[in-house]
């Protein structure tokens, strides 16, 4: 059979099949070309549909259960889930149901289930939509929820789940002139200097993208470089640099930046971003544990981690992962801290950060590094920044950020940041 033409909905279902069926991460699927046959606008729509479905899957499954005697095969279930979420978020019933039936109809193994899809989605359109908002707030899977409840408590967990379900606005770091770009983009200027757009549309079509006047970066992700406080001419190593949001901040401050990452493919993204923004850094591909350059005035270690702080933006993560690789990541983070400390000038500063909600990848790493390295200190003053709430500073002297912080402003990614000096 000839392959059916790609569409945003069809591609979104295909993304769901691979995330939920094969444990693939959406970012990996997209960077290996999953949406390349779509126009930029459809690419953005497919991604949005898949993300909305993953955020609402808990509710969709509860609604669908009322109309299904047993769970259908995964590709059919995903068609129903996407259709349900679209209907319940205000999608046009006629268009959604017809498209979902057509997607099943072109599936070689499941085209005999077109009637089921038609009947179930019509019932959802008729009476499911009203109950959507009364359904329980979607919860994280227990492999991740349990340790987070243990770390932060049951009520904060619910607040974080509320933030995950709400998704994330578009945050932008301007190269300079934040107030001017806030006006041009009709954005809110957040207290920490990030610009926030609630409903941006296609990012590459916004003013200032082509001219490289700003880059996309969550408000929390912009803080590690502010904590580092780069000075013009300082020799700074950005040790896990790709895709480069923090490299751009360091370079924009006039520092002499070396950006290093183990992935050649991801390092290409750093180079592309530098070119687009007209900034410069020395780009190296290599293992952070083997780097022997320096000594450096400062090092930014944005270590590989569970990325559990980014679930607002990446709702696929709890479905694609199961936590089994976290132990290895935690060991790698400690080894990276130890090696980075050998590359610093005396009195130099090491900013350790992870986009994780797990204390093992944040607070505990700092405690353990202090125990391993005599003379190492935590610089609390570095956290004294505009817009940073002193209540976010931890007993260890790090900065703990969570998705439920700034809830009224649209939240922020989960992060842990600490400034270490020796
Ligand atoms: C959290 S991401 C960095 C995000 C980046 N700092 C930014 O702001 O755009 C972690 C990065 O660490 C890189 N990485 C993983 N293991 C590494 C290693 N042993 N040496 C250097 N980089 C590594 C990954 O390729 C990934 O790009």
UniProtKB/TrEMBL annotation:
Family classification: Belongs to the class I-like SAM-binding methyltransferase superfamily. RsmB/NOP family.
Record carries keyword Iron: no
GO-annotated molecular function: RNA binding; RNA methyltransferase activity
Species assigned in the record: Roseovarius litorisediminis
Enzyme Commission code: 2.1.1.176
Record: residues binding S-adenosyl-L-methionine: 240-246, 261, 302
Protein name: Ribosomal RNA small subunit methyltransferase B
Sequence ranges assigned to domain SAM-dependent MTase RsmB/NOP-type in this UniProt record: 132-422
Keywords for the protein's UniProt record, in alphabetical order: Methyltransferase, RNA-binding, S-adenosyl-L-methionine, Transferase
Active-site feature positions: 355 (nucleophile)
CDD domains xref list: AdoMet_MTases (cd02440)
Gene3D superfamilies, per database record: NusB-like, Vaccinia Virus protein VP39
Any GO BP annotation: RNA methylation
Entry keyword annotation includes DNA repair: no
């Amino acid at each position: 059979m000839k392959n059916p033409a790609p569409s945003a909905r069809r591609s979104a279902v295909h993304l769901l099949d691979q995330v939920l069926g094969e444990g693939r991460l959406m970012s990996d699927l997209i960077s290996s070309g999953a949406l390349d046959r779509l126009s930029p606008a459809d690419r953005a729509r497919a991604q949005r549909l898949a993300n909305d479905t993953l955020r609402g899957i808990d509710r969709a499954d509860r609604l669908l259960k009322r109309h299904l005697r047993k769970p259908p095969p995964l590709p059919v279930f995903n068609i129903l889930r996407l259709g349900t979420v679209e209907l319940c978020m205000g999608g046009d019933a006629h268009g959604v149901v017809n498209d979902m039936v057509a997607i099943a109809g072109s599936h070689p193994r499941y085209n005999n289930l077109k009637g089921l899809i038609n009947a179930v989605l019509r019932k959802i359109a008729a009476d499911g939509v009203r109950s959507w908002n009364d359904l329980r707030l979607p919860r994280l899977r227990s492999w991740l929820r349990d340790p987070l409840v243990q770390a932060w408590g049951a009520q904060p967990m619910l607040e974080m789940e509320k933030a995950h379900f709400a998704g994330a606005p578009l945050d932008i770091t301007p190269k300079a002139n934040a107030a001017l770009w806030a006006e041009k983009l009709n954005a809110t200027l957040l207290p920490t200097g990030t610009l926030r757009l609630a409903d941006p549309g296609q990012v590459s079509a916004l003013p200032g993208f082509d001219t490289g006047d700003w880059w996309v970066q969550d408000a929390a992700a912009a803080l590690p470089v502010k904590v580092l406080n780069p000075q013009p001419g300082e020799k700074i190593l950005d040790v896990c640099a790709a895709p480069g949001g923090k490299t751009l901040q360091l370079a924009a401050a006039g520092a002499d930046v070396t950006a290093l990452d183990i992935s050649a493919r991801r390092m290409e993204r750093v180079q592309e971003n530098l070119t687009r923004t007209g900034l410069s850094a020395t780009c190296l591909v290599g293992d952070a544990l083997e780097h022997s350059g320096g000594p450096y005035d400062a090092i930014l270690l944005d270590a590989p981690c569970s990325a559990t702080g980014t679930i607002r933006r990446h709702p696929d993560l709890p479905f694609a992962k199961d936590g089994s690789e976290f132990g290895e990541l935690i060991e790698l983070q400690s080894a990276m801290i130890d090696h980075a400390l050998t590359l610093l000038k005396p009195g130099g500063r090491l900013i350790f950060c992870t986009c994780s909600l797990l204390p093992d990848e944040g607070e505990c790493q700092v405690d353990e590094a202090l125990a391993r390295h005599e003379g190492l200190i935590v610089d609390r003053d570095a956290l004294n920044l505009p817009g940073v709430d002193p209540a976010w500073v931890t007993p260890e002297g790090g900065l703990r950020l969570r998705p439920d912080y700034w809830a009224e402003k649209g939240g922020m990614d989960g992060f842990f940041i600490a400034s270490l000096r020796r």
